[in-house]
Structure formats: structure tokens, C-alpha cells
Design a protein that fits this description.
The protein is of the alpha+beta class. The protein contains three helices and three strands.
Length: 109
């Protein structure tokens, strides 16, 4: 089944050929903690509205886990990760507590 010319034109218009959206690896790790650390970083970046791709497979532990972001977001992503690491576990626990409180107040409405 072939696409009609109209569908092909729409698909071509959606593509952004710029290199600003090319993915750049900002984190790579291998080993026992790699998956959990990558998932934690993925969560931090998503929480800050930074597009992120998690690359890796639990079924192939011999391969590394990587976090990739668009080129235009590399500096923001690195700064966000640095800030999260500096804040440490206490900040994560406080953020979780606040989100739970917000969730409880919304469920009672």
C-alpha cells in the first residue's frame, strides 16, 4: 500500500533536518548500578521538561546504559543533573513528600 502524495508531503513537512535535535550521550555507565542510575537521571530530566532517551537493556547487562538528549538541551541537561546530584537524597525525599501531599489534596477534591 503506497502513501498518497498528500500524505508523503505531510510527512516531509514534519521532519526537522536541523542538527539541534540530534541526540547526544550525556551519561554512560555499565555495571550493577548502571540501570538504576540511568533511570533516576531519566526521571530528573523528564521532571524538568527535558526530552530524554534511555538506551540500554536489562536483559543484556554486558551493554552500557546511556542517557541521550537533543543537542540543543545538552547544557541544560548537564546543569540539571549537576544540581540534582549536589542537592542529594534529602532533596529527592523532600520532593517526593511534597508530591505525595499534593496528590492527597487533589484526591480529596
Amino acid at each position: 500500500m503506497e502513501d498518497t502524495p498528500e500524505i508523503q508531503q505531510e510527512q516531509e513537512e514534519v521532519v526537522d533536518p536541523s542538527h539541534e535535535l540530534d541526540l547526544v550521550t550525556i551519561f554512560e555507565s555499565q555495571g550493577a548500578e548502571a540501570e538504576s542510575e540511568a533511570m533516576a537521571l531519566e526521571g530528573v530530566l523528564k521532571a524538568n521538561d527535558i526530552p530524554v532517551v534511555l538506551v540500554g537493556s536489562s536483559t543484556l547487562p554486558n551493554l552500557p546504559f546511556m542517557i541521550q538528549v537533543p543537542t540543543e538541551m545538552v547544557e541544560v541537561a548537564n546543569a540539571t543533573i549537576k544540581e540534582a546530584r549536589a542537592a542529594g537524597p534529602a532533596a529527592a525525599e523532600e520532593a517526593e513528600r511534597i508530591s505525595e501531599l499534593q496528590g492527597n489534596s487533589e484526591s480529596t477534591l
